[in-house]
Amino acid sequence: MERTYKLVKEKFSVNFLATLGMASSIAIASIIDMIMVGNFLGGSALAALNLNSPVICIINVVFGFFVFGGNTLAVTLKAERNQDGANRAFSVSIVFGTLVMGIIAFLGIIFRSYVAGMLCRNNEELLPFVMGYLVPLLITGVLAIPVNGTCAYVRVDDLQRLALTVPIVSNIVNLLFDYIFMGILHLGIAGAGWATNVGYAAGILCLSQYFVSKKRSFYFSFGGLTDLGMIRETLKTGLASALVDACLFIQSLTMNLIIVSAFGAIGAQVAAVALSAQNIAAIFYKGTTQTMLPVGGALYGEKDYTGLREVMKSGFVMTEIFMLVIVALLEIFAIPFGIVFGVSSPEAKELVGYAFRLYILSFPFVGAKECLRVVLQSTNRKNAASWLTGLSGTVCFVPVIWVLAVTIPMLLWTSSAIAAILSICGCLVCLRFLAKKKTEAEGILIPKATGDVKTFEFSIKNTIADAESASVRMINLCRENGLEERYANYFGIAVEEMRTNIARYAYKDKESAADIFLGIDKKELLLRIRDNGVIFNPTEFVDDGGTEITGLKFLKMLPVKAEYNRVLGFNNTIISIVRDL
């Protein structure tokens, strides 16, 4: 019996579809807006959407701090069997995230003239378009936190259909009202922003199902809203994610100002096309990395390092395949892609042919950098993840783009690729250096079991017959590692009884797999069994008639501690024994 990784791979695949839907919601809305604005209102309006991209980055900074930070923290706390802490993290992420974004929107609307002028360097041709889109965009930020934020927790609760439905409905409504507001009512560029808000309002209506669902495991805890420690921990956990968009803010603002100075309004128009391509790429690299983050956080919390390594490897390969396919297609169809967004003048088409093709070469490197960041963030190396983001977004990017702008202006479109390569190399060198200074056996990226702990793991099918063979395997493992016969018998009984009951009640006639882990150290023995069946606590199960299942009668007589926890749609049962020394 060897471990198959079937459970974690299935969980990654299922969560990826839902995460892809969430990651696409903002990106697709932005792409739709750009296509319709470019064709309805012309090149200057299209350029204005790109010039507002720093505002989108600010929205995403708040999202990263509160939603990604709170969601990752909540999943980790659930894995550690701290449901109260998970509820407090959920409350902080949604309520405080919305509140902070509301304050930013309020200030942005008051000072909209100054903000719009800064974004376009007071270019008279672009200023009215930038200002017209700014106000509804700020309102979009306020709505995005509760909608996309709650969807993150919907995925954790394994309600994948609802997690997919919300962004699909939001984007269909957005597309419909884009046509109504701009094509029929002639509301101009502001109509594109208000259409996005109507789409989010539809998403809120869809999410009402979650708050009445019996399957939800996250609830608002008003104690969490006054817990400064939880707020601080949420912000600390989300720092790396927030830094990504904080650095993107600096990147987009710097790049837009340089492009407007060097290439004028046509350069800003081509930059908008490049931003749309980046949004398409982001759907996929965010879809994979945002799936890796909660799954990886849960596996790390359970100290399942081999499962974590498998998830991270699969996520990296998937990300790079997506990025290479997107780059290949866009290199071939660069000019037609620009035409879709309303690029029509010969000068703009010529610039797309050179600048756009150079810009999209950064996608595979940006995807690799994001995968590396998620590995660091999932393994609780938040400072390293933050340094990686800072290297790519500011320390490397800003000097590179300014040097290229002064020396070879056309090559400034390669700045993102060069910055990503430099940051990845710099981060790996630092990690290698730090690993050499440590005495324990740890991996450079994924941790390994340390100290005196011996770990063993294998997978079985969820059948009664395999429960018996797993019991024999467990007894043999205990004997081979010098454990007393009574401990071997304890765990043999535990595995057989729990797997028999899980096969009978959690799966019935459905065949699936289960992962079994054994940890041995000087003070404690730990047995963990994971399956992805229906919610089922094998230690305290009561059937529909209120009768307790008695299949665990021998286990209940043993001097062991039994705990149950459900994380990311997995049933986790933990049996521990304190050794007599």
Helix content: over 70%
Radius of gyration: 26 Å
* Number of DSSP strand runs: 5
Inertia-based shape? elongated
Strand order of the largest sheet: 1-2-3-5-4
Structural class computed from helices and strand pairing = alpha+beta
Residue-averaged pLDDT:
82
Which spans of ≥5 residues are poorly predicted at pLDDT below 50? Answer: 542-547
**Terminus-to-terminus distance:** 31 Å
SSE pattern: HHHHHHHHHHHHHHHHEHHEEHEE
* Helix segment tally: 19
- Assembly type: single chain
What portion of the residues fall into strands of 2 or more residues? Answer: 5-15%
Tell me about the biggest sheet?
Answer: 5 strands, antiparallel
Give the number of domains: 2
Question: Summary?
Answer:
The chain is an alpha+beta fold.
Walk me through what this model shows.
This protein has 581 residues and is an alpha+beta fold. The chain has two domains: 6-437, no CATH class; 454-578, Histidine kinase-like ATPase, C-terminal domain (Heat Shock Protein 90, 2-Layer Sandwich), CATH 3.30.565. It is 72% helix and 7% strand. It has 19 helices and five strands. The chain has helices spanning 6-41, 43-51, 53-79, 83-110, 112-120, 127-156, 160-184, 189-211, 228-301, 305-332, 334-340, 346-359, 363-378, 382-395, 397-407, 415-437, 464-480, 485-507, 553-556, and strands at residues 454-461, 513-520, 524-531, 561-567, 570-578. A five-stranded antiparallel beta sheet has the order 1-2-3-5-4, with helices on both faces. α9 (228-301) packs across α14 (382-395) and α14 runs antiparallel to α16 (415-437). The two termini are 31 Å apart.
